[in-house]
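The following record pairs a protein chain with its ligand, zinc ion.
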Amino acid sequence: MQSASQKIHNPTLMVNQPDYNDSDQLSMVVLGSGSRGNAYYIWNRDTSVLIDCGLSTKQILARLEKVGILHPQIDAIFITHEHTDHVSSCAILEKRLNRLGQHPTFYMSPGTFCAAPEKCLPNNVSLIRDLETTQVGSVLVEAFEVPHDGTECLGYRVGYNGHWVGVITDLGDVTDVVIDKMRTMTTMAFEFNHDVDMLQNGSYPLQVQERILDWSGHLSNAQAAEALERSVSPRLQHLILAHISEQNNCPKLAESIARNVLDRSCHTDLIHLHVAEQHNPSPIFTVHQKPKMVLPTALI
Ligand SMILES: [Zn+2]
Ligand SMILES: [Zn+2]
């Protein structure tokens, strides 16, 4: 079998976005984010990975096509945890890709492998653990544990050319390890799941509210903002607010809270803020070489 780096890899990209076609940097598109399904496509010129398979195969391919990626080459697929909004289409996507001559490995933790619904499991699985790194073609993918009520849940960051692009969702608490990873990201999808008042005054049964608010549930806007405040760095170029609850949050509220944090930082105008949607793909976020920044004297 060809290695990923030997393959000719040239996703066809939108005509009005020529920079992405030419870029040898990492790019990411959020294909969908939220409790109804999640998938993130991350690539450079010769390697592509998908993080999570919680949208249908049809939607994954349709949304890639919608952003101009007509013939995606998927070299590996990394699964965060066993909840159906992250794993539901693994087996079907594998069959579809196999028919197209692609045989990606699905990486997941041992806990996810044991707990995932059997009908969702693909054949080509490799187990990955907390803080393990995997080389896929020219990119490095690192897994790190996040506290959530699945079994051995993972966040991921994908590294290439001195930059990291990461996905951190489905966590009820922010650990020091998560903060350390956040500080390294150039592009990051980070969970802003709910507003606590909306959740507590909403229609969810008390038991479900407690599950969401638990340390192994989901991050509130306030928790996410605090983590952002602790971690925001001059490296960060694209911040994508992810896994936003349709019932218990409002995209504009989450955006304004994140914006406030960025406004308090010294490099706010250089960070692109975006709110990921459940039913539409995001724009393509590409790492770019920043102009040299002049830091305020207080920071030197
Ligand atoms: Zn989820
Ligand atoms: Zn989950």
